[in-house]
Design a protein that fits this description.
Radius of gyration of chain A: 22 Å
Structural class of chain A: alpha/beta
CATH class of the largest domain in chain A: Alpha Beta
Oligomer: homodimer
Largest interface: A-B, 54 and 53 residues
Distance between the termini of chain A: 72 Å
Order of helices and strands of chain A: HHHHEEEHEHEHEH
Strand content of chain A: 5-15%
Strand order of the largest sheet of chain A: 4-3-5-6
CATH topology of the largest domain in chain A: Dna Topoisomerase Vi A Subunit, Chain: A, domain 2
């Protein structure tokens, strides 16, 4: 036998799981064997959900967040402040910002950050539509809430250059020492930023 | 919104992944978003493989291991010693024993161990077919290679009671200190067993 498993069907299922990030072949085999111990109906439902996943998932035509409707629940909510936009990388970041309950504006989901290493340029992201949204007027502030990485900073810079002509207020989320962390465990860069960006005591 | 995600399709896909052992909702969301970044064809292939998984996977009618053919490659191999059976819990254990290259007999895959806590009784396992195989004759030794747990021991005991009438040699894989481990790090039970089951120096 020049393959690892005693069955091509098993091989194929393990291979599919092992394509996912963070899942190796051992874990994949464990997952497939777990599925085999489940009722037929449950396993075929699992399969069906993913066979149509890409067709089932829709994106909000305003903010590009995942949504079941043309306009997502956040964009359609009249109680939210439509003059403030928070620019994030992906759906998880929308959920993260929402969970803070500190933001009542609307979002703009870029779908990633500029990363020449991964072949992601500005044209692969929802930057043109962000510029269009701001150009249409009614927006006072754009908060850039991208990851504090080199790619995030590059994207911040690129977006700020594109938006400066519209005279909207641009801000970047604060970087500094995480709340609840001892200073001695903070990395120097974050601690340095937290000193530079110190805020007056209220 | 009383659900966690902005879309029912997303919710459903995340829910399916999160049913798998060791995958929480955060990991599940990460996996689904990863899939959304892949081409349509790749994602629908993933789905198709699992929608027919239970129908595609066949079991060897002799040893009950996963197989593409009626009789698996191991059972069908004339070079293997058909007088020795190794009783294991599942496919992974067959792969584990095979990888040692220390066993040239045939297998019998139980499909689990007796575990009253999980509602698994002897009738849920391939024990009756094991008894039939031994009763049919031609088998000299049955090696029980189940996990060294309470459930494994219970299953060993149950099987040994069922097989004793046939006068075959019954053995259990050795338990002791793992090869390459320092004695000081071995747990007391394993170390105790390794003293009880000491073997003469060759």
């Amino acid at each position: 036998m020049n393959r690892e498993y005693p069955s091509a069907a098993l091989e194929r299922a393990v291979g599919e799981f092992a394509k996912l990030p963070g899942i190796g072949r051992k874990t994949a085999l464990r997952l497939v064997l777990h599925m085999l111990s489940k009722p037929d109906e449950e396993v075929s439902t699992f399969g069906r959900v993913f066979s149509t996943l890409k067709q089932d998932i829709k994106y909000c035509k305003v903010c590009h967040n995942i949504s079941d409707t043309d306009t997502c629940a956040i964009c359609a909510n009249p109680k939210r402040d439509s003059s403030t936009l928070c620019v994030v990388e992906n759906v998880q970041d929308v959920l993260a910002v929402e969970s803070t309950m500190q933001f009542n504006g609307l979002y703009h989901v870029l779908g990633g950050v500029i990363s020449p290493m991964d072949g992601v340029g500005p044209q692969d992201l929802q930057i043109a539509s962000l510029v269009d949204r701001v150009a249409a007027g009614g927006i006072n502030e754009v908060i850039l809430a991208l990851s504090p990485t080199m790619e995030g900073d590059t994207t911040n810079f690129f977006i700020s250059r594109k938006l400066q002509q519209f005279g909207v207020k641009l801000s970047v989320i604060a970087r500094g020492v995480a709340v609840g962390n001892n200073l001695e465990y903070a990395d120097e860069v974050s601690l340095g930023r937290s000193i530079q960006d110190r805020t007056p005591l209220k």
